Amino acid sequence: MPFNFDFKPKKVPFVQTKFRTIKTKIPSPETVEIFREMDKYNTGSGGVQLPIAWDKAIDFSVYDKAGNKWIDWTSTIFVANAGHANPRIKKAIKDQLDKDLVHSYNYPTEIRNKFLAKLVKMSKPYGDRALLFSGGSEACEAVFAIMKAYGQKKNKDKSGIISFQNAMHGVTMAAQMLKNNKKVLAVYGFKDPNIFHLPFPFNWDEKVNWAKKFNDDISELVKGGMKIKNISGIMLEAYQGWGALFYPMPYIKELIKFAKKNKLLLAVDEIQGGCGRTGKMFVFEHYGLKPDLIALGKGLSSSLPLSAVIGSKELLALAEEFDVAHSTHSGNPLSCAAGLANLEEIESRNLITETARKGKILFDGLNKIKNKYLQLIAHINGKGLLAAVLFKNPKTGGPESKFTSRVCELAMEKGLLLVHTSRESIKIAPPLTISDAALREGLAVFEESIDEVGKSHKF
Q1: CB neighbours of 62 closer than 8 A, spacing ≥ 6?
Q2: Looking at the chain, which terminus has fewer C-beta neighbours within 10 angstroms, N or C?
Q3: Count of CB atoms within 10 A of residue 347's CB?
Q4: Which CATH architecture best describes the domain 87-348?
Q5: Could you state, in order of their start, the residue ranges of all structural domains in the chain?
Q6: Distance between CA 288 and CA 417 in Å, rounded?
Q7: pLDDT per position as a tens digit, 108-151
Q8: In the CATH hierarchy, which fold is given to the domain comprising 15-82+351-456?
């Protein structure tokens, strides 16, 4: 069961620094009604999130109505790459709003064209066209359909897709099938028999021959009935999200060779990692991989709902042919204005290079913390300003989820927001605009929280 936080205000020590302010009980008493109203009208994962009612967010800071202020290490959920309420993005949205064009369905607009031109330019040489959608799930569904159509154009039986067990490609039907979420698929009553799942190559096992492991896993799928001649492509999450788990290089190189040999499409889901998050425009650039299709979202606008699929003219034409090239809010003028300003901000402020530099500060600090708490921390994964710290039970060595929830809770009480996953990992993803000083202060708070919970937690 997921850990649920208590929304009853709790007395905590007050905090006042340049980047943090905690001056009330947490959550602040004046925000309790917001939680009650949400519980009354909305059924969702509210209790799994940290008990803070956001009032405003600016750059790398989050505020509630009482004036409490947190260093944000979440970017909401990997969205605010260019910072919360970025001035350039706000102005672009306001300017577009003043033009009295707030929705245009799939009709041509000047702002849509400007955004597309910038996106394609920043994506070269990986594609020369883009399709626009409103969310990451939509983009991944379109990739799924394009891959299927590509194969079936060649041979009606060539509709197979290889994906990875537990990969997170969204919450829609194809995404759940790609993930192999058995609980959800049981409710659907349907599972595409032409989707085949590789076990994820967890890179902490250093003794594994990863090239051999890839080929062995493919052989197991073949033994189970997969026919390589009927596979259209491979869908990869750029890294497995819950633990910022990157593919071992020998494994990914063998995967690329396999795809090339069998003329398979390679599609990469960059929803969580694209637009500079890892110190490169795209995560796949770390692998030396050249995909045929790219799904982007979240940090694409740093604000409003916006996602995209990038690829060749020939491949994206299949989306139009099979009527998956757009949806109601595709290319929304306000979202396109935000997306254009976001890409301009990333480029003009050199945020990708800066993220690589700041990533060194982050990981130097995290590795120092790990070395201090070897009995509690199993792994630290990630690149740039993306990290996951995986905790273990010091008695059994197994994963420890309750401890991570308590660390997230205490850090929040001290003025630092972390990504709560409800499992053994804590994810870290500050806006790429975070200052060096705030990053270092966040590291100090994180270490304090681990230390204090470690002394009181009953394993």
Answers
A1: 52, 54, 56, 69, 70, 72, 84, 417
A2: N
A3: 15
A4: 3-Layer(aba) Sandwich (3.40)
A5: 15-82+351-456, 87-348
A6: 33
A7: 999 999 999 999 999 999 999 999 999 999 999 999 999 999 99
A8: Aspartate Aminotransferase, domain 1 (3.90.1150)
